[in-house]
Amino acid sequence: MSQRRKLAAGNWKMNGLQAQLDEVAALAGAHTDPGCDILICPPATLLSRMADRAAGSFVAVGGQDCHPALSGAHTGDISARMLADAGASHVIVGHSERRTDHGEQDAVVRGKAEAAIAAGLVAVVCIGETLEQREAGETLRVIGTQLAGSVPDGIDAASLVVAYEPVWAIGTGKVPTLGQIAEVHNFMRAGLVARFDRAADGVRLLYGGSVKPSNATEIFAVSNVDGALVGGASLKADDFGGIIAALERA
Ligand code: 13P
Predict the structure, then answer these.
(1) C-beta of 28 in contact with ligand 1 (< 6 A)
(2) CA-based nearest residue to 53, from 103, 100, 19
(3) Which of 25, 89, 158, 224 has its CA 20 to 30 A from that of 193?
C-alpha cells in the first residue's frame, strides 16, 4: 500500500459571508505545520478572497461544483478553469445535494470530474447511498455503479479523491457503524484497484456525513479511510481543528 497523505476537507455548502473568512485565517494560523492536507470549499462568492486569505498557508481552497464544459453559454454556471483562476486547487463534484437538487447523474458527474482534472484541479468525486437503498441491501451495488459511472478513465492518484457520503448521514447526526464504513471503503478501494491497478493505491478515500471532533478519531481508525469531507463542523475553525487534530493522530 502506498503512503497516502490524509486529507481533511471542509464543504461549506451554501453558507458563508465575508465575515466568515476570519475562520480560515484562524485555521491557517493554528495549523502551520499540519500532519495532513487541509482543504476548505467555500461558496463561489468567497473563493477568490478565501484564496487570498489562505495564501502562504497550508490551507487549500476548492470549489463545490463545476460545469463539464471549459467555457460557453451556460448562464449561472462556473467552469473548472474559472475556479483554478480564482485560486482553487480542488473541486467537489457529484455531491448528493447536487445529484438531488439538480438531477445530476453519474455521466454528468464524470464529465465534471474530467473538466476539473483537465483544468489542473483535483476532483473530489462524491458517491453514497440513500437510506432506502441501504435498507434494501443495495448499498454496494449503488456504490459500485456510482464509482464506475462517476470516476473518469485514465486517472492518476494525485488528481482524484473519492468521498463516500451516505445520503442519510449528511447533516443528520447519524453515522454508519464503523463496520459499515469499512465495508464500503474496502469495496471502493478494491473497485478502483480492479479498474486502475497500481494507480488506485494512492487515491484518497474520504468518509463524509456527520463527522465531528467527537467521532472523528474512531472513524479515522477504519481501514481505507484517508480523511473526511466535513459539512457543518467545517464552518468553525475550532470544530474543524478538532477533526484535523484527530486526523493528524490517526
Ligand atoms: P455534514 O458534515 O454536515 O453531515 O455534511 C457532510 C457533507 O455533505 C460534506 O460534503
Answers:
(1) no
(2) 19
(3) 89
Whose C-alpha lies nearest to ligand 1, atom 9? Answer: 231
> Looking at 31, 67, 90, 95, which residue is catalytic?
95
Residues 87 and 63: beta-carbon distance below 8 Å: no
Catalytic residue among 23, 114, 129, 165: 165
* Ligand 1 neighbour 208 (Cβ under 6 A): yes
Residue nearest to atom 5 of ligand 1 (CA): 231
- Do 237 and 23 touch, CB atoms closer than 8 A? yes
- Judge if pTM exceeds 0.90: yes
User: 11 CB less than 6 Å from ligand 1?
Assistant: yes
> For a pLDDT cut of 70, what percent of the chain falls above it?
99
Any atom of ligand 1 within 6 Å of the Cβ of 209: yes
Give the pLDDT mean for 54-76. Answer: 97
The Cα 99–Cα 215 span in angstroms is 27
AA letter at 233: A
What is the rounded CA–CA span in Å between residue 189 and residue 182? 10
Residue 2 has pLDDT above 60, yes or no: no
| Nearest Cα to Cα of residue 205 among 184, 183, 227, 181 | 227
Question: For 159-178, how does the pLDDT look when each residue is reduced to its tens digit (9 = 90+)?
Answer: 999 999 999 999 999 999 99
Catalytic site residue 165?
A: yes
pLDDT band at 1 (very low <50, low <70, confident <90, very high): very low
Structural domains in the chain, CATH included, are: 7-249 (3.20.20.70)
Atom of ligand 1 nearest to the CA of 230: 2
**Cα–Cα dist 43/120, whole Å:** 20
